[in-house]
Write a structure and sequence with these properties.
- By secondary structure, the chain is mainly β.
- The protein has a twelve-stranded antiparallel barrel.
- A hairpin with a 2-residue loop joins strand 3 and strand 4.
Length: about 325
């Protein structure tokens, strides 16, 4: 079923201002859900650094400024201390990237690797009744940083929902995620990743744009590269802290398969599944197939790069809460 994307002119400044603020914020330059109630937490592209390759392919010291040079330039000044801190942080980021495969972030499925980027997604989906369009600006994406070589922390501001129907527009819930890299190996040394994630959301929005309850989402993640093919898979549970009798508990299983073309073009296919136990949707399941394409990354300034991707979720089961969800994803790795 095809439909025309409707993006009112009043909404466009909202999403583009959010992107511009994130790109040109001093922090970046100095350093550089879907359907409500579906409980999907998803995110990244292999960034590039000054070594001439993707930053994932660089050594841990490829972007580091020699310590001796820092000491010579400002042995005791505040500027030198700041440079030391930033330099140390980026070395940890490069070391983390150099310890894992270099797979691209899927469109829907949570990226299995540790990533450092700002990501902004937008989506437009058809509601099952009447075929009206709901627009989602933000799509539970945001800032992801690598504080240590085995951890990633993500903070995802509330999305803004716009409904063609009489449903009131508004902000959704604040989401977060912490990733832990347990085992990994780069290409030629095993080409795999195994990790454990913990995500969740706080009820900052009000129904129907927010869930009205806090959610915890433990997840197991694994990935394997086979030649030019990459496979990433996650399985987790969405466990309401309260309101389980209404929301129920859900098992979320996602798998993404992509093919690398010269390290810049990444066609992919994903399956996204949810199975409910308890609550209003007890015994229900919905499965989506999501063909997509990611391009990049392309250098913007020093460590800051740009990747862009898109895809469409298509319902593969008779029961589905939405359909033909078009997704546009913009990523700024640094």
């Amino acid at each position: 079923m095809a439909f025309k994307l409707i993006t009112p002119s009043a909404e466009r400044p909202f999403c583009f201002v959010a992107i511009l603020i994130s790109v040109f914020s001093p922090a970046l330059w100095t350093q550089t859900s879907p359907k409500i109630g579906a409980y999907q937490f998803s995110s990244s592209n292999p960034p590039r650094s000054s070594c001439g390759q993707t930053s994932d392919e660089c050594s841990a010291d490829s972007t580091a400024v020699p310590q001796q040079a820092l000491n010579q330039s400002d042995a005791s000044g505040i500027s030198g201390q700041q440079d030391d801190w930033v330099d140390s942080w980026f070395r940890r980021v490069d070391e983390a990237r150099a310890s894992q495969p270099h797979f691209v972030s899927p469109i829907v499925t949570t990226h299995v690797m540790l990533v450092q980027q700002y990501r902004y997604d937008m989506s437009w989906q058809q509601d099952p009744v009447g075929g009206t369009v709901t627009s989602n600006y933000g799509a539970s994406r945001g800032l992801e940083i690598i504080p240590t070589t085995r951890l990633e922390v993500g903070i995802f501001p509330p999305s803004y929902f716009v409904h063609q129907s009489k449903t009131p527009d508004g902000f959704g819930d604040l989401s977060w995620q912490v990733k832990f890299r347990a085992f990994s190996a780069t290409e030629g040394k095993g080409d795999y990743f195994v990790g454990f994630f913990l995500g969740g959301s706080f009820p900052t929005g009000t129904p129907p744009n927010g869930l009205g309850h806090s959610i915890l989402s433990p997840t197991f993640a694994a990935a394997k590269g086979i030649g030019s093919w990459d496979i990433q898979s996650t399985i987790g549970a969405n466990l309401p802290a309260t309101g389980a009798n209404h929301l129920g508990r859900a098992i979320v299983f996602n798998t993404a398969v992509d093919y690398r073309i010269k390290g810049k073009i990444w066609p992919m296919l994903e399956q996204n599944s949810i199975f409910w136990s308890g609550g209003n949707l007890h015994g229900k399941k919905e499965v989506f197939l999501t063909p997509g394409l990611v391009l990049g990354s392309f250098p913007l300034a020093e460590r800051l790069h740009l990747s862009i991707g898109g895809g469409v979720q298509i319902a593969a089961t008779s029961f589905h809460q939405y359909n033909h969800r078009w997704i546009l994803s913009v990523r700024f790795p640094f």
